[in-house]
DNA sequence: GCCACCGGTGGC
DNA sequence: GCCACCGGTGGC
């Protein structure tokens, strides 16, 4: 019944403000116009590198000669998605919620079903699918609860990591693309955010 | 040690 | 009373 644009109607909202992907050639950021497009690129980013040319699909004249669409400064909280996250099935929504700074986790991923039910884990997802025969065609391999990684590792409270050895010097090493989230809450963190800037070599 | 999962609860 | 958010922890 009240399926009415349900999704996106009220409570369901996304922490992500802008979707951006880095050009594999010139390393400039290109804004991705829609979440759907972003998810499509993200799924195949390993097989198909993103280039400024790719953005011509929605920006006919853009090229590596144009400056970056967005500066990677501290006006946003940056996070890198992992590659190979499947596109969200039609009728569903994949929602990312960034947690408060200084907590034990960075973000939560959840899926909203076509009938507006919020699911928090693979367990809940498969149970829900089993209990709803009309969703039998839905394969759980189309879902991933893997959250992105913050570029600023200090955003999360330090664990018993100690010694901070170089082991994790490059956060999200394999990930090619990133998303931005709004960094409201605090005033000007400023401190070290800019240092976390993309090591993005090789 | 990490993280997927879920219970508790504070704020609405 | 509900639910968004967070922390604890069991299983790997």
TrEMBL record:
It is found in: Nucleus. This is Methyl-CpG-binding domain-containing protein 2-like. Residues 7-72 form the CW-type domain. The keyword Ribosomal protein does not apply. It comes from the Eukaryota. Residues 179-202 have a biased composition (Polar residues). InterPro entries: DNA-bd_dom_sf, Methyl_CpG_DNA-bd, Znf_CW. Keywords: DNA-binding, Metal-binding, Nucleus, Transcription, Transcription regulation, Zinc, Zinc-finger. Residues 159-202 are annotated as: Disordered. SUPFAM superfamilies: DNA-binding domain. One of its GO terms (cellular component) is nucleus. Its main location: nucleus. Transmembrane segments: none annotated. The lineage of its organism: Eukaryota, Viridiplantae, Streptophyta, Embryophyta, Tracheophyta. It comes from Sesamum indicum. One of its GO terms (molecular function) is DNA binding. Residues 78-150 form the MBD domain. The keyword Glycoprotein does not apply.
């Amino acid at each position: 019944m009240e399926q009415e644009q349900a999704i996106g109607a009220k409570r369901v909202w996304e922490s992500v403000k802008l979707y951006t992907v880095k050009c594999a050639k010139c390393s400039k950021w290109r804004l991705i116009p829609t979440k759907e497009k972003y998810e499509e690129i993200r799924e195949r980013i390993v097989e198909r590198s993103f280039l400024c040319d790719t953005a011509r699909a929605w920006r006919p004249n853009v090229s590596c000669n144009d400056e970056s669409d967005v500066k990677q400064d501290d006006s946003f909280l940056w996070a890198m998605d992992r590659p190979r996250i499947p596109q969200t099935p039609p009728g569903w929504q994949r929602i990312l919620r960034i947690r408060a700074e200084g907590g034990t986790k960075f973000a939560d991923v959840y899926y909203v079903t076509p009938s507006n039910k919020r699911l928090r884990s693979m367990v809940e997802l498969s149970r829900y699918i089993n209990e709803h025969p009309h969703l039998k065609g839905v394969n759980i391999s189309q879902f991933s609860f893997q959250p992105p990684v913050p570029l600023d590792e200090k955003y999360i409270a330090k664990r018993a990591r100690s010694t901070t050895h170089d082991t994790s010097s490059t956060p999200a090493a394999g990930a090619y693309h990133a998303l931005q989230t709004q960094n409201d809450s605090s005033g000007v963190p400023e401190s070290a955010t800019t240092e976390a800037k993309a090591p993005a070599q090789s």
